[in-house]
Amino acid sequence: MTPGRPGAVPAVPPPSPEQLLAALDAEQRTVARTLLGPVAVLAGAGTGKTRAITHRIAYGVATGTYSPNHVLALTFTTRAAGELRSRLRALGAGTVQARTFHAAAMAQLSYFWPDTVGGHAPRIVESKGRVIAHAADTVGLYVDTPVLRDLAAEVEWRKVQMLTLEEYEAAAADRVMPRDTTPRRVVDLMKAYEQLKDDRRQLDFEDVLLATLGMIESEPRVASYVRQQYRFFVVDEYQDVSPVQHDLLRAWLGGRDDVCVVGDASQTIYSFAGASSRYLLGFGAEFPRGSVLRLERNYRSTREVVHAANTLMRGQPGALDLVAQDPSPGPEPTVLACAHDGDEAQTIARTVAAIVADPANHASHGDVAVLFRVGAQSAAIESALGRAGIPYRVQGGTRFFDRPEVKLAVHHMRGEAVRQTDDELTRRVGLVLQVSGWTPTPPEGTGAVREQWEALQAIMALAEDAAAGTTMQQFTQDLVDRAATHHEPELDAVTLATLHSSKGLEWPHVVIAGVAEGLLPISHATTDAEVDEERRLFYVGLTRARRSVTVTWSRQGSSRAGGRAPSRFLAALDRNIVDGGAPVGG
Prior knowledge:
disordered N terminus; single chain; globular; alpha/beta; 22 helices
């Protein structure tokens, strides 16, 4: 509806500065009020860091300290950027730019390339693996798909570390090379890969960051324009920043220091890809006049979960001491020992069923996640859940907005959005969804029909949760934005995810599978630094849980050959390991 039309719903005014501050606790309020100069926010898991930084930005805009067009909020995934934009819109700061490092760099590169280099900017490589495979053939290196993935990781690592080929070859002496390769052979492949890209006039994602950095450093006109455009910077998940991202941020700042970084060293889990927490932990040395603030009130998890997480990370660099704010007691984390991998999968299915069946939990399937170290662990768990009739979704599988029924529903809504009507949002959305096959009550069973209903029901849930006064046009645009940024709604199905992909998410009940030596920590983690990273990965898994954590491990693999020991990390749970399913003997 447009303003001034009969029956139009008036726009909801943005929160006042006082209202923005009133929604925060004392420490978050300090973050929001510290608007100028360098600021580092050390924010533990579940402490409301996204809430704090979005309210900080909105407070800066509401008080006139920030011009929204001069603020750039940076993060690392399109989903996280989409969530930032969604929250900022709700807080009256919807015109603030929230982008990934790559998206911000690509926009600048595309804009300045014609004037600084000439012609259109090069195309982005669609499949790095395919180009690397071609380069491998060129140098006579014959490798399979897993090794190609490892070679791609080496290419990416070299670039984000900003190493020349010669520097990489020297550094590679201390790295584990992809199977059947040597540092010299990998350098030959890298040279061929770069030549192929040049011949095809292409850039890869890492080139985008490097080229943008080079353009700003070598072209004063570009640097001046960018620095006039963006005056204030906010960087989320700063513990994940790589050297090239750090240097690009400093180039954008250009000697200024109005930057706020937010992160948690205990959640640094991408060191293998070049991420480093040293920029977060060394912020005070880099910006001596900066403020270092802490968020340690955990609003997500019970005291029992928080205690386990604190115990696990005690003594680790940068570890925060979380304080649970939930006064109600919860169950102690449970460790279930299983006979073998098949038994462990069945135990997980029984555990999930028991969680949902317990009336005290008030839990649906969507309230449960099963997390694991490597994707290969998923198959047995999927099979066990399927046999038990438990609906599940695999994180990273078919995206929500790519499902046929969802695409059809969004298409119908875009048509409905142009009609002016006084009907409330949920009624209009319900009518459109019924055309796509939705019904107010769910169908019985757990097959494809139920999955389709769950997907459409998720859209209805978004409509029910929309702010008062949201129009059909605004709601539809939000769906389009969510689709573009992979900001997907939750489905009523158990989530299966790797520990890496669970970062940034949360569930009432979490099951962590395969917490045994060789799986977590994984067998190739041999140095102290690598084991510490595995510890942080387990910490991420623990802190995804709001109410309960169940940890499983099996004494033997599927072949029932070769024994396993429980993970050294289980000592943090301070509880006896109990049998989880079939008898395990001795």
